[in-house]
Amino acid sequence: MKLAIINDEVSQSLNAVISLSTAHAFHGVEIRSVWNTPPHRLNHDQCDRVRQMLADAGLVVAGYAPPVFKTPLPTNPASIADAVDSLRSALDLAVRLGSPSLRIFTFFRDGEPNPRAAAEMARSILRRVDIPETVQLNVETGTRTNTPDAATTYEFMEALDDARVGVLWDPGNGVFSGYAQGRDVLAEYALLRPFIRHVHVKDPAGRSGYVELGHGDISWPVVLDRLRADGYAGFLSLETHWRIGRVLTPHQRDEPWGDAFSADGEDASARCMKQLAQWVGVR
Prior knowledge:
By secondary structure, the chain is α/β, with parallel strands linked by helices. The chain has helices at 14-23, 44-56, 77-97, 115-126, 150-160, 171-177, 185-192, 220-229, 250-254, 259-262, 265-280; strands at 2-6, 28-31, 60-68, 101-104, 136-140, 165-169, 196-201, 203-204, 210-211, 235-238.
């Protein structure tokens, strides 16, 4: 297992992220917003700079996390075209960053999750886009999407049936959404195990918010032991989502970028990075 931090959970300054990552012996950085630029608004020069700065520090780009398909389910030619353009643009930036993966969503749900409708739309969009062999697409288990838990994500993956697409498992989102609250996290993992290519690490306290890693509802040491036993070799990306002295707003969770989101993240993330590194045993 390799450790990464989503950069804007620490700071909008990439230098601050690099300093903290090397201090805790992390292997890479997952890129979201940087220098107060949302991930989908980065330009090629910024991507080149990110890639070079990380390489100079002995770090790698662990993933790229723009808000692809983090929209209502497209219902007309114009919204479908927008989704196609969003994916194409994100793939271009992922390649420029040298990212091994690109996180995508399954559209905001309207009422109860409808993973099959989401899969049908995703299939239609994917047919129109050339996916570089160097970039793995990973569907996130998203709080407000059509795949908030393992069961809905499994249904989506079975319906999509596309070998180019894996799963970014975020069990914290499942609990926070309410759909996986109170469930056995290892049972959730077992259902998705064949598809999991990337993992986001954060710790929810029910549906009230996120807390310091190790103080919430996810038994992360148990999860990490199972991942290790199963030979998981992908990234664990810390997505802190916890701040000392304040709680992220729903808007900040939906659009997690910029100084307003990153504020107070450095100390909180440092604590969680230390804990995660100890659990994984990187030192």
